[in-house]
């Protein structure tokens, strides 16, 4: 199936919410990891989301170009071509855009989507994330309000973060402390600023102790029950069950119990990066270490071209990452539930 249309993406999210499961949202760094994610979704018979980070967007455009919007559009065009052959529905998303990158990354992509829609074409990306964790909640929501208006014009969805995610991802870094927990007051302010869907649909990353990257589990205290408390209180106020479409950031390394509790409280999208990066690179490391005397031209010898051909280590790495995507889909309950089945 092709990359999700705006309506198909909304239908995906509705199915997850109604069915009590969540989609893996896999960060990729180029065509190889994109192909690995697609393979994993297809192997799991799961729809899913592929996302690009602020650093990857720059990386994708090449060292001499260094243009986030160009890099993101190039990967999206590639994805639209190859994803059509995989039999699952996949959405594209830009992840964790801080304030300093809005004008050279997300806003150009939203403008591109508006222009494409004016020509009867679908947007290249289906959603974009604004990361306002480094500014006050008032400023965060003011920027989000403007972006939501633009997103409605583009026929894309907006993802916001209400609270702070600990750890570091592509230069966005926060301490692991008591600021990692969203409150009912934070959620109430979000609805006051953005509405409860009547002004445009948005995804919300409420924080419950989440941490990005590699961390000591003893230093992290996930409290997914916070999500349930917020959903109940705000749901009663707006007259709708589980009013927030929730996102679980920093999902890599989380226990099955915490993931299940988060999904039960309305999480429909979980970001995964660290675990899939490791699966991909661990496979490459094994190849290089076990075949070092073939990969390297040692003592004036020639090595073995078949061993250092990037395809010889790239294909197993893609398979290893795809297997980790399957594991995520099974843990989140999306495996075997593709809309294309």
The domain count comes to 1
Helical fraction:
40-55%
The name of the CATH superfamily reads Aldolase class I
Distance between termini? 11 Å
Beta-strand residue fraction: 5-15%
**Unreliable residue runs:** 171-177
Largest sheet: 8 strands, parallel, barrel
User: What order do the helices and strands follow?
Assistant: HEHEHHEHEHEEEHEHEHEHHHH
Mean pLDDT: 92
Q: What's the CATH topology label? A: TIM Barrel
Number of helices: 13
Description:
Keywords: Glycolysis, Lyase, Metal-binding, Zinc. InterPro entries: Aldolase_TIM, FBA_II, Fruct_bisP_bact. Pathway: Carbohydrate degradation; glycolysis; D-glyceraldehyde 3-phosphate and glycerone phosphate from D-glucose: step 4/4. The active site is at residue 95. The chain has one domain (6-332): TIM Barrel (Alpha-Beta Barrel), CATH 3.20.20.70. It is an alpha/beta fold and 341 residues long. An eight-stranded parallel beta barrel has the order 1-2-3-4-5-8-9-10, surrounded by nine helices. The chain has a two-stranded antiparallel ribbon with strand order 6-7. The longest helix has 23 residues, at 310-332. The relative contact order is 0.16. β9 (245-248), α9 and β10 form a beta-alpha-beta unit. It has 13 helices and ten strands.
Task: Describe the structure using short key phrases.
single chain; 341 residues; alpha/beta; TIM Barrel; eight-stranded parallel β-barrel; two-stranded antiparallel ribbon; 13 helices; 10 strands; 49% helix; globular; Fructose-bisphosphate aldolase; FBA_II; glycolysis
């Amino acid at each position: 199936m092709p990359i999700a249309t705006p309506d198909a993406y909304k239908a995906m999210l509705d199915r997850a919410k109604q069915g009590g499961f969540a989609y893996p949202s896999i960060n990729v760094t180029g065509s190889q990891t994109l192909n690995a994610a697609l393979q994993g979704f297809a192997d799991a018979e799961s729809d899913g989301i592929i996302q690009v980070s602020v650093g990857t967007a720059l990386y994708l455009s090449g060292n001499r170009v260094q243009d986030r919007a160009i890099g993101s559009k190039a990967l999206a065009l590639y994805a639209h071509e190859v994803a059509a052959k995989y039999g699952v529905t996949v959405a594209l998303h830009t992840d964790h855009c801080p304030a300093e990158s809005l004008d050279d990354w997300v806003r150009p992509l939203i403008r591109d989507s508006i222009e494409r829609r004016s020509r009867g074409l679908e947007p290249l990306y289906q959603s974009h994330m604004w990361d306002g964790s480094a500014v006050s909640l008032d400023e965060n929501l003011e920027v989000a309000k403007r972006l939501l208006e633009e997103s409605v014009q583009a026929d894309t969805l907006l993802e916001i973060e209400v609270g702070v995610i600990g750890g570091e991802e592509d230069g966005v870094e926060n301490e692991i402390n008591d600021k990692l927990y969203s409150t009912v007051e934070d959620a109430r302010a979000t609805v006051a600023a953005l509405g409860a869907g009547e002004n445009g649909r948005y995804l919300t990353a409420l924080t419950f102790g989440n941490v990005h990257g590699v961390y000591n589990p003893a230093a992290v205290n996930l409290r997914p029950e916070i999500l349930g408390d917020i959903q109940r209180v705000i749901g009663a106020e707006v007259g709708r069950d589980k009013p927030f479409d929730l996102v679980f950031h920093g999902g890599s390394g989380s226990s099955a119990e915490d993931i299940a509790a988060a999904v039960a409280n309305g999480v429909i999208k979980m970001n995964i990066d660290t675990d899939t990066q490791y699966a991909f690179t661990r496979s490459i490391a094994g190849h290089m270490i076990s075949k070092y005397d073939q990969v390297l031209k040692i003592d004036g010898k020639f090595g073995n071209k078949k061993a250092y051909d990037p395809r010889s280590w790239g294909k197993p790495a893609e398979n290893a990452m795809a297997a980790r995507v399957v594991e995520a889909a099974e843990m989140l309950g999306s495996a075997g539930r593709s809309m294309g089945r």
